[in-house]
Amino acid sequence: MSRVNFSKEYGYWVHKLKQYPFNEQIKNRLEEIECPWRPSDANHIIKGKNPVHTPKALLDLMKKESDKTLHKYELMREAVDMVKAGISQAEWSLIRDVYINKSMTVEGAAYKYLDRSKNYAYDNIIWPFFRRFEETVFELSVAGKFSMKVSMV
Fold first, then answer.
1. Among positive and negative, which fits the CA dihedral 5, 22, 107, 127?
2. In this model, does residue 82 exceed pLDDT 80?
C-alpha cells in the first residue's frame, strides 16, 4: 500500500502517537479537574440558606472517575505500552524516532535500525504496529465498557 493510503487509514492514530506518553495531557487534565476556572459571580453573596456540601476530595475523585478525556489519555497510554511490549527495541526505536520525536524519516530510520528499505519498514513494522495499536485501543475500551461485576448472594 502507498503512503497516501497509510495516512488515510492511520492518520488519527499517528496523531495520537505523537502525544505519547500523554504525561503532560494527563497532568493538565487533572489540574483542570482539581482547580477549575470559574468566572466570578456578581451575586455570590446571595446563596441558599442550607447549601449541601460535598467534601472536595470526594468531589474531585468523582470527577476524575467520570472524566472521559482523562480516561481517553490513560487508555491510549496503556495501549501504546502494550503494543510496545510486543515489538523489538529496534522496531520501537524506529517508531519513536519517526512518529514521536520526528527526528528521522522512515527511510533513514529503516536503514539505521534495521538495515532495510523503507518498503520493508512500512510493510513489516509500521503497518502492523498501527494495526495492533488500533486493535488494542478497541479491545481496552470494550473491556472497560463491558466489565461487569456479578456477585452471588
1. negative
2. yes
